[in-house]
Design brief:
By secondary structure, this protein is an alpha/beta fold. The protein has a single domain, classed as Glycoside hydrolase/deacetylase (TIM Barrel), CATH 3.20.20. Helices cover 47% and strands 15% of the residues. It is built from 11 helices and 9 strands. The strands form 2 sheets. Strands 1, 2, 3, 8 and 9 form a 5-stranded parallel sheet that branches. Helix 8 runs parallel beside helix 10. The radius of gyration is 18 Å and the shape is globular.
């Protein structure tokens, strides 16, 4: 149960990678890069229109390179009431970075996003959904409130541990099952991703997982990408899922920060 009396929180999060996803893989030919452009040209506007129709606020994790390339669109996301989170510079894998470079990228992303949006990001999501040995300490050093890159729970937030020591960094857990990329991303090379799942299959998985979150009184956390879920037939499935979830009493659609703030409020209220 959440402090506002709601039974289940639903977080719709979107990783707005755009061209940075492909640039990070050194796949920079025009056709490949245009897949990222689709996310900005078609996916984000289509998603913003859908969210506005429902009156839902979401969280968009944005690489700094995407924010520089699509500045007006990122500002539009913020103007529509959505949260912007840190998602690297050019979608780098922090595991492949030394401490100095990882710190530089965190600082660069904070500076870029704050300059463009007027807001310092309070949350971070690793572009690789993986963290280096230095990541947790760096996230605390740069005063992030939450991370959303790890998978030690499904429907419950928790405090992150660093080498068995609990920190004050809150984890908003993610899951490959609740990410659109494993289901839908198609790519021939250099790695073959088969993708192309029927939305009906994904709907069944996501709807059942929502039931688990709802019955546990926790949070249902989806990760989507505008260049993937922005396709008409997939967004239609998401609408059907939103309608299904909205039909349950006590469902609260919120941003990552809103859910984290409420969770922290409840932790502080617990007796010592």
């Amino acid at each position: 149960m959440w402090s506002n009396g709601k039974k289940c929180a639903v977080i719709l999060s979107f990783d707005f990678d755009a061209e940075s996803l492909w640039a990070s893989k050194n796949l920079k030919t025009p056709s490949v890069m245009s897949r990222g452009e689709y996310g900005a040209r078609v996916g984000v506007p289509r998603i913003l229109s859908m969210l506005d129709g429902y009156g839902i606020r979401a969280t968009f994790f944005v690489p700094a390179e995407t924010a520089r390339r699509h500045t007006d669109l990122v500002r539009e996301i913020v103007a529509n009431g959505h949260e912007i989170g840190h998602h690297g510079n050019v979608h780098e894998n922090p595991v492949k970075l030394d401490r100095e470079r990882e710190a530089q990228i965190l600082a660069m992303g904070i500076e870029t996003l704050e300059k463009i949006t007027g807001q310092r990001p309070s949350g971070y999501r690793s572009p690789a959904w993986d963290l280096s040995d230095n990541s947790i300490r760096l996230l605390q050093q740069y005063e992030f409130v939450y991370d959303s890159s790890m998978m030690a729970d499904d429907f419950q937030l928790y405090f992150v541990k660093d080498k068995d020591q609990q920190t004050n960094l809150v984890e908003v857990p993610v899951s490959w099952e609740l990410d659109d990329a494993p289901h839908f991303l198609f790519q021939f090379a250099p790695v073959h991703y088969p993708g192309m799942s029927a939305p009906s299959k994904v709907y069944e998985i996501w709807a059942d997982e929502f039931e688990g979150a709802y019955n546990s009184g926790g949070a249902f956390i989806l990760t989507m990408h505008p260049q993937i879920s922005g396709r008409y037939h997939r967004l239609k499935m998401l609408k059907n899922l939103i309608d299904h979830m909205s039909g349950h009493p006590g469902v609260w659609f919120a941003t990552c920060s809103e859910v984290v703030d409420d969770w922290l409020k409840q932790q502080r209220a617990k007796p010592l």
